[in-house]
Amino acid sequence: YPAEPLSSHRQRHYDAWLTATARDLFAHDVRLRDLDVQVRFDGGVAHLTGEVDSVEQLQRVRAAIGRLAGVHAVWDRIRVAGREPVIIDIGCGDTLQYPGNVGLDCRPGPAVSVVADLTNGLPIADGAVDQIFAVHVLEHLPDYLPLVDECHRVLRPAGVLHVLSPWWRHVNAVADPTHLHFFDIQTIKALCSRPGRRWYPHHASCDGATVFADLVALGPDDPAPDSVWLARFFD
Q1: Scanning 37, 39, 46, 67, which has its CA 20 to 30 A from the CA of 79?
Q2: 128 Cβ neighbours under 8 A, 6+ residues apart
Q3: Which pTM does this prediction carry?
Q4: For residues 201 and 214, is the Cβ–Cβ distance under 8 A?
């Protein structure tokens, strides 16, 4: 892993390079060039908007962007066949990752649509959600594995759980006394290899301060990722 995150100056320029490279990819890759998708980067995270005709096209876009060097996560708010995605932010506090997301938190707030104790599960029906953001949330819970399983339950097929947590070697991991767990890329590997509700690591990264993961919920008959794919992210 990098010894420390990129400086803000270098990261800003690197984001500009990634954005230009992604736009060039959409302009010239025959698999992507007819798609109505816009892309920008912020802190190494790809933000995609627009519309595609099918889930397969959306997965193709995510995969293509995730292959670029320096990408830490691939986030999107893309309509599929005219349908707006259902996206929830769990433990959102005062911040939604995208306007239009549904915020869940244990306390009321300007971004909170549903007040819920996350340790008691998610008050959401099975297979009702396209994406879930858990941004600096899991490390605060005494036992976050039941919540990860709940996320799997409420996600639609090919739904994605986006996780951000402080990297265990960075000062941010220990500076907050409410942090109860440490995270590493290998933690994400362990989440994906648990029996029961399985996850496919679409992307996983660490920038020297934060661990990022985009995890796709696998169905009971979906194949597990092979060792070649896992070697992209994990030892």
Answers
A1: 67
A2: 86, 154, 156
A3: 0.95
A4: yes
